[in-house]
């Protein structure tokens, strides 16, 4: 009997270990050779063009792919690299891809990568993990370096999958095409309610895409039109082409915790979450509005609305950090209530890059029935 018990315990420990290894099959952070610092042999290059599909370790390339070194000149333009010394450029019909192994089925993952344009014309990047795919415009209006970091999410259907990044457009000028560097992955966990009595989830924004610790400009989160699986769990970014910026306390002033969001696109972007509510019940939403300490000066205004309630929160920013608390009370009229936040102003830093108010620490609680007020 004791032997059987011992055998069962050993088997249980073994199964727990297997499950733990399976759950941790993908490590958050840079993909294998995700910064392209390991490059092709000289014999596999024609100038800067990569001539062999497997020339870049851990990656498979096709089409016109160039291996770029920092400071390299292209048509009188010096190409910078944000981290390290090397990156890749995607020309006509070009793609790079890497096999992702150890995924957990039905788990959401976020891909973070940095990109820059090489020409004045509009450029785009398509990111795919079958069957999910999204096309992200490379706008380069959010940092002064010419590089922005983007996030894109997918839901794993299998334990292995190919991540593909390609240029979906046929460039008029073959020397044009986006630069790609620093590709990372992070498993997304749909968080519980921020506070025990809050019906809103991830209101502290502690769950979101991977941010590179050495990059001081945050990560852009695309709208639902470009990525139906949000890299910001529980939240949806509503816009045609504009984004929201996910920022960290290491490089920005955030009101609470390690992360927050910056509303950088004015009225063109709305941050939305749908929450379960009881019709006729009154609720109070509280949140923090401030500036990220990144030189964004001026009159910041955040508008929040839910059901028939609405409030505008002004904040005079000196660009050095700080925040204020705000509240909104409303009565629910449906079983599901849409909570919406928008920046009412367009702001620009002295270097010409877009900026806006920081939003953080959002909670939504039901008021005691004796305090209930119905808004008609």
UniProtKB/TrEMBL annotation:
GO cellular component terms, semicolon-separated: extracellular region
Membrane in keyword set: no
Signal peptide from the UniProt entry: 1-25
Compartments where found: Cell envelope; Secreted
Top-level taxon: Eukaryota
Domain called DUF642: residue spans: 29-186, 199-363
UniProt xrefs under Pfam families: DUF642
Keywords: Glycoprotein, Secreted, Signal
InterPro entries: DGR2-like_dom, Pectin_Meth_Modulator
UniProt keyword DNA repair, yes or no: no
Chief location category: other
Protein name per its UniProtKB record: DUF642 domain-containing protein
Lineage: Eukaryota, Viridiplantae, Streptophyta, Embryophyta, Tracheophyta
